[in-house]
Amino acid sequence: MLTNVNLRGNHIGDEAAAALGEGLKVNAVLTNLHLYFNQIGDVGAAALGEALKVNAVLNKLDLSWNNIGDTGVTALAEALKFNAVLNTLNLDDFDLPIKQLKGTEPVETLDFSRKGLGHLSGIVIAKCLEVNAVLTNLNIGDNKIGPTGATALGDALKVNAVLTNLNIANNDIGHTGATSLADALQVNKVMTNLNIAGNKIGDQGAAALGEGLKGNEGNEVLKVLDLSSNNIGDAGAAALGEGLNGNAVLTTLRLEYNNISDAGKTALSERLNGNAVLET
After folding, report:
1. DSSP secondary structure letter of residue 201
2. 89: exposed, middle or buried (C-beta count within 10 Å: 0-12, 13-18, 19+)?
3. Per-residue pLDDT tens over the stretch 175-204
4. Could you write out the DSSP letters of every residue in 50-87?
5. Residue 52 contacts by C-beta under 8 Å, 6 or more apart in sequence?
6. Cα–Cα distance between 166 and 138 in angstroms, integer?
């Protein structure tokens, strides 16, 4: 009985991947499929995603080192919501534990730091978080999820009701990713600790976070925010101070290793006069 198929490095492309997808819809024995380095793009990934919606036996799928873009990986990620058996999906040379990410195999903490994850894995993680009802701590620091991965995480945080601690430090999310997270903070009711250090968010990203944290208008639960090493200058510090002026919950704000001058620090301090709880 054939349970494992390894087609690594065969350049099968989208057409053959789609054919494999059709076969997977009716296959009842194959548990491991390795399609590493096969020039599979969005079309092939979407076809495999359709197969995953109905396949009831495949346990491991390796799609690393292909040409899959945002559209293809989103199709795969959405399909995972319907699939109850796939245990690992590999897109960046790391096996993502899908059942744990979705919460069907319950864990409260997951640490994916320094795993070389790119934005494709970031999108899958985010889509799984949308349906996870048990995970409270997630560390994906020191990876490469970028603005696209951070945007997907922001969308997930708008609906996730359990994740309280998120570390996405050093992921090159930039001001675009920071803005997406700031938008999420305006509606998220559970996140208490967020680490965005080392992401080059600059003044624009800091300003967006300031808006997201405004008292009586934005986030009412976040207690700890780490913005260290983010190229934030005086304008960004002022915008953060403006937003935090009426915030009654944030107790710790880390801004070390930024570009804030003494004048900027003074302006920030003055704007925080209306904040009665911030300690750092």
Report:
1. -
2. buried
3. 999 999 999 999 998 999 999 999 999 999
4. HHHTT-SS--EEE--SS---HHHHHHHHHHHTT-SS--
5. 24, 58, 61, 76, 79, 80, 82, 83, 86
6. 5
- Strand order of the β-sheet with 137-139 is 109-111, 137-139, 165-167, 193-195, 224-226, 252-254
Q: What are the φ and ψ backbone dihedral angles of 166, each rounded to 5 degrees?
A: -130, 125
Q: Is 117 helix (H, G, I), strand (E, B) or coil?
A: coil
Structure tokens that stand for 77 in this block: 């990620």
What pLDDT is attached to residue 249? 87
Neighbour-count burial of 41, counting CB atoms closer than 10 A to its CB (0-12 exposed, 13-18 middle, 19+ buried): middle
Phi first, then psi: give them for residue 225, nearest 5 degrees: -130, 120
Please say whether the beta carbons of 118 and 145 come within 8 A: yes
Widest CA span in the chain: 72
Rg of the chain over all Cα atoms, to the nearest angstrom: 21
Amino acid in the structure at residue 98: I
DSSP letter (8 states) at residue 127: H
Output the pTM of the full model: 0.95
Tokens of 186: 């305006």
Other beta carbons within 10 Å of 97: 16
Is 168 within 8 Å of 195 (Cβ atoms)?
Answer: yes
